[in-house]
Amino acid sequence: MTPPPNTSTFGLSPGTLVYVGPEVAKDTTLKIVKYNEQYHEQHTIKQIKDCQISGDKPYISWLDVDGIHESGVIEAVGQLHNIHPLLLEDIMNTRQKPKIEFFNETYVFVSLKMLYWHDEMGEIEAEHVSFLLGSNYLISFQEKRTGDIFGPVLDRIKASVGKTRRNGADYLLFSLIDLIVDNYLEILERMSEELEELEGLILAGKHKDPISELYNLKRQLTLMRKYVLPLRDMLSQGLRENSKLIGKSTFPYFRDVHDHVINAIETIDSNRELLTGLIDIHYSTLSSRMNTVMKTLTIYSAVFMPLTFIVGIYGMNFDNMPELRQPNGYFYTLAGMAVLAGGLLIYFRRRGWM
Amino acid sequence: MTPPPNTSTFGLSPGTLVYVGPEVAKDTTLKIVKYNEQYHEQHTIKQIKDCQISGDKPYISWLDVDGIHESGVIEAVGQLHNIHPLLLEDIMNTRQKPKIEFFNETYVFVSLKMLYWHDEMGEIEAEHVSFLLGSNYLISFQEKRTGDIFGPVLDRIKASVGKTRRNGADYLLFSLIDLIVDNYLEILERMSEELEELEGLILAGKHKDPISELYNLKRQLTLMRKYVLPLRDMLSQGLRENSKLIGKSTFPYFRDVHDHVINAIETIDSNRELLTGLIDIHYSTLSSRMNTVMKTLTIYSAVFMPLTFIVGIYGMNFDNMPELRQPNGYFYTLAGMAVLAGGLLIYFRRRGWM
Amino acid sequence: MTPPPNTSTFGLSPGTLVYVGPEVAKDTTLKIVKYNEQYHEQHTIKQIKDCQISGDKPYISWLDVDGIHESGVIEAVGQLHNIHPLLLEDIMNTRQKPKIEFFNETYVFVSLKMLYWHDEMGEIEAEHVSFLLGSNYLISFQEKRTGDIFGPVLDRIKASVGKTRRNGADYLLFSLIDLIVDNYLEILERMSEELEELEGLILAGKHKDPISELYNLKRQLTLMRKYVLPLRDMLSQGLRENSKLIGKSTFPYFRDVHDHVINAIETIDSNRELLTGLIDIHYSTLSSRMNTVMKTLTIYSAVFMPLTFIVGIYGMNFDNMPELRQPNGYFYTLAGMAVLAGGLLIYFRRRGWM
Amino acid sequence: MTPPPNTSTFGLSPGTLVYVGPEVAKDTTLKIVKYNEQYHEQHTIKQIKDCQISGDKPYISWLDVDGIHESGVIEAVGQLHNIHPLLLEDIMNTRQKPKIEFFNETYVFVSLKMLYWHDEMGEIEAEHVSFLLGSNYLISFQEKRTGDIFGPVLDRIKASVGKTRRNGADYLLFSLIDLIVDNYLEILERMSEELEELEGLILAGKHKDPISELYNLKRQLTLMRKYVLPLRDMLSQGLRENSKLIGKSTFPYFRDVHDHVINAIETIDSNRELLTGLIDIHYSTLSSRMNTVMKTLTIYSAVFMPLTFIVGIYGMNFDNMPELRQPNGYFYTLAGMAVLAGGLLIYFRRRGWM
Amino acid sequence: MTPPPNTSTFGLSPGTLVYVGPEVAKDTTLKIVKYNEQYHEQHTIKQIKDCQISGDKPYISWLDVDGIHESGVIEAVGQLHNIHPLLLEDIMNTRQKPKIEFFNETYVFVSLKMLYWHDEMGEIEAEHVSFLLGSNYLISFQEKRTGDIFGPVLDRIKASVGKTRRNGADYLLFSLIDLIVDNYLEILERMSEELEELEGLILAGKHKDPISELYNLKRQLTLMRKYVLPLRDMLSQGLRENSKLIGKSTFPYFRDVHDHVINAIETIDSNRELLTGLIDIHYSTLSSRMNTVMKTLTIYSAVFMPLTFIVGIYGMNFDNMPELRQPNGYFYTLAGMAVLAGGLLIYFRRRGWM
């Protein structure tokens, strides 16, 4: 929920490039992919100046910048492709929330989050991803932390399967967003399973203290919602805006992702509701157990207090206590106490306490 | 709440047909119905290629695909009728939420959920249903699990009763949706009855632990809401959109279904509110019982603790205890204790604890 | 909250007339009222065919159908006045929520609920009322259960007082709706009074178990809200729609009813909020009473447990217990215990437990 | 929250003038003020017919009707100034919620509430105030209960200070509304102070039972919100509507009042939230006190129960109990009990219960 | 939450200048900065009449008024620059919520809050800041309490770094707003850290009474939300409005601040949700501790009550008690009690109470 610790940006001139995410030791990797239906080429770039791509080519160019922690690299890429300084700031700012921005017909800027689910910690980790879609090219930026997240699409292009090779840069953008959104659904699936397991334990009253676990799940869902929700508006804005950069033929695909996003949001919301319900059930279980405990205590006290009082009476040392002198006094007393105890137990059973 | 376990679709090319619902052993059944006011014909299809229907006939054609788990069959039906691959994905995706889509004037795609109420488990089961309405024909897709859900409409067409035979394919679509929505109201009726029964038990304080039952009902209502809510927007969008495929004369009928859907949503919402109220009442009952238990315990203790102390005093073995030597000491002590107990009981009654 | 038990309508052809409300033994009564500023006539109809009224008369015609449980009668009235079959279904469907519908310039359909407050049961009963406003006539439908609810307006027309006689059929419709809405405010008034009474008892801590009463009131308010809320949109839609059937001169009157409806909704909402507050107060009272009970128990135990222990010590039968042999041992022990008890009481008073 | 007891208006013809507020013994006072930059005149009217004012004068005319309980007076004023009967009903109806209505270019009707804060009862009292703004004149109606609320504006006009004398009737209306809204802020100030005091007591745990006080404050805030909220829409509607009666130059002033109203609403809402927080804190305090009480009780019991049991053992009268015969048995027993008690106390301290 | 104590403004003529903030001892400081790309000048003003700046100069003029508690100074500045009296009221009114107002093409008025976080008190302090943007000049007003908040921007202009020197007065305005909004994010960062610390303590069950701390944090967040929320609408209104005073080239910058504001609001909201969750966890911890306490008490009682009763029996003084005479009666009794105690402990362990 709380953003990662950061270098303060207070008082800096706006547009100053500062990386605020967790520290990264590795260098930035730049990869260029060029393809059309017939042609395919893919290579890693050594010198930043070689990374320039443009849209006036007979193939689709895709520049993948893997690592956003080196401001020098980002700045250079930005200058070569004429990117607005504030956009560069957004690309490096890992705390930037998902958004879409249209810059006339020159390019479309899209930024969102790739999510990872760490099973052992039960935590979601977010990686900041940005796209710049030009007329015939795409530039993607990702954090260099968990390996290349665009692997499956790269493989698809290389293997020449799927529709990616036959379609434009907008379809490539769709494929990458689709990959990320499908991953949301995967994560939600796993959280749902964990939730269902917890639910079983709680309903069976077998989980002693599920609150902190429920609380963590709720927190992760809240975090996830924060990342997923803006995507809904982002995508519908993308469909509304009549940019030439996103062709009409890719519209059904974007609508499809939009549907998946809505699905994800609904699953998040229903899971959150489920969590609230489970918390209620847990409290109810606690309360009714307390009730049982208290009833047990009360019945014990109600039965033994009078008995102990009676034996106390006959333990007194008065000189003149006629009962003590009767031959069967002791046995009558024992019998009387048995009758009293029995009567009390019957009474409590009738009141429904036992 | 949680979707059924599924084959992962992560990393697959979009538009790849994957069935994600529960496993089904039976084969897909294809049925064709052709009718107009005078004419009626109905037969099951053996070979997929015979299932092609079209709108340029003097009768209404209805192709009912019973089973959506065989991607081969769905793909073949799709190719024969020129259906967009993404729609085929939606038809097979049992997790797809209800939606309507207009494809120019060629066809209208509608997808929703048929619901079943399992009394013994107190659970709702959803079956994914899709429709493709063309100018003079309708294709319906349903999961092959619980038998043909369109029975009553088939019977009506066969028996030549009702308005179905006199009207177009849009009226047929309405009849089928109406059937599904009427069923929602039936289910809600049953849930309301169950709720009312629970309510009686809870208000009478006779239900020991109603929380998990209430929780399950709430969950089923949440689930149902998720399926029913999108229908409202879907139907109003259907009425707004000026498609030639849905004639003006069927508008009042669609408005009627729309009304029923709103009615269903309101019943769901008021039942949910009722449930929340019942949970509150249950807690209140728990609390006030706890209060009674605690009061009983306290009164017992308050009465017997001083008495036991007094008898303890006279059970001491000091050599010099003048009271013990008095002939009536024992009787005075008993009397004193009776007065003390009586006084305490009067005091507690005055404080309203008894 | 739950609709009354009903004959199932599942699988029936849409537009089939089925009465779903509580059983009614009486016959339907049909009454015709004709009036203008000079003229007035009022009579009950024996044969259904005589009930036809039309708008091309120099007077206002009002047909009041008292009883909607006989589908034959409703169907006949419908045929004579050319009413759409779905509207007839709505007229008979006592579960239909309030709505307005404009059928070109032919007629306006309005349906709402007359409410009754049963003091002894603390329950609201709803009667389904529908209106059909034509250019110069009005047809009203009501359930035959609690007598003619339009009495006051009928009397006003007969007595030639008020503006009703000088105005058109739209003003008549307004008068009848106004009558129904005024009744809502009456009922709310009574509920408010009951609530205020309950509030007094709860704040004074005199009501042992107000939860089920509060719960019932909340339920009735929820029910009422369900009936009243749609009226707001209904009336504003009626004012927006530019129908010739509702004259501009009656607009201020309809706006006035609209205001009353909003007033009713606000009163419902603030009463509901009040109820929630009272439930909280009740719980708080329960909690703080529990606190008092527990403190009493704890103080008793804290005082008497050490004392009982001490007297137990001197009740032991060891041969060598020097204290027991001292002449004043008993009195010193008594004094010591008095000091201990006093000290404990002072301590608890300082801690604020007494 | 609940409206004052009233004469029922059920079944009456709409537009019938009925006063529903608390009973008033005093007569209505009618006051006329005429002024422009040079001229000023102010006098009380004896006969109703003299109260007629109009806009075609070289000065601003203001008729202040102090008292709305005499339907005869209101009706006469209404007839002299051509006011719609439904408006007269609204003027007299103390339960009418704030609203604005434009009657072409003839007049603007504004109704709102003057609020009073009764410190001793902690209650808000509302007085119904209405205005009728014509082209060059203003008629104001107020309840005759707590003295003339327009005093400060009257004084300002008389003293020839401020902008009121230089401006039109619309500025006069603004001044009067501003007066009323400023008073809202005053009341909120006082409530805030009271709340802050309560907060201090609750946080310090010094208030035994703050719930009913918090509840009352919440209720008053809810009540106030009901009166203030409609003003926001009312004023923005007044600014939107392009009436000639409200000049463009007074727009900044009305926007200013609008700002104050929003400020008041926000203060109400944040105070309500604060109240909810305080209720939570109070419950938390109750709970943790209960915890302390229970721990005390448990520690007492845990320590003294075993001790009392031990002394009980040696109080038994068996013939053969070797310990009793040992010379130091008593002292060993005392020492053993001290060790046991000490051990238990150390154990409970380690568990954090002490 | 509650506004600072103030001089009442009730009954005053609108536009009367009253300072309502905390008392300030220092004099107002007036500073003028003039700059363009080549030129830079900065000096403090002695006499108010020298403070007049205007837009028809070849450089940007910025007048910074440090101190808003002297109505004379504000009035003089207002007259020299032709500012509407109501705006002057807003400038001095520290309770004024953030807003933007466009006065044709003459000037834009912006008012917002600079926030300070007092670590030791855990409280937010707000300083009222207003801006008046003309075509080529800017006037800023700030409270003279905590030193000049515009320091970093002043330094940037002096040092000739950043884009401020190359851009117009609108960019200067943006820089100052950006400074204030960046500070919001700083404060939120610190609150998040504190929250995370609290969270750790609560989840570990180490914080005894975190409620008042959580409550204070929630209150500060509510307060902050009140100050930050209006900025969102304010900035989007500023972007919507097509004022010549704010150039198209500064739009991306303002959109950027807008993004930061939304980010701040979302962090506030998610922190508030987190707080609610922590409160729940705290209650749950309290409840389950209570449960443990009660179980301990009950087990103690359940074990020792029967034992004490048994020893009480053999402490009775009846003449005829055969058991007492048996040589091994004492040892049999001890053994029996050990068996009973063991059995009870096993029983409670089986029930899961130990």
TrEMBL record, chains A, B, C, D, E:
Lineage: Bacteria, Pseudomonadati, Bacteroidota, Cytophagia, Cytophagales
Name listed for the protein in its UniProt record: Magnesium transport protein CorA
Keywords from the named record: Cell membrane, Coiled coil, Ion transport, Magnesium, Membrane, Transmembrane, Transmembrane helix, Transport
Record organism: Runella rosea
Assigned GO CC terms: plasma membrane
A GO term, aspect molecular function: cobalt ion binding
Location(s) in or outside the cell: Cell membrane; Membrane
Membrane topology, as annotated: Multi-pass membrane protein
Keyword Hydrolase: no
Signal peptide per UniProt: none
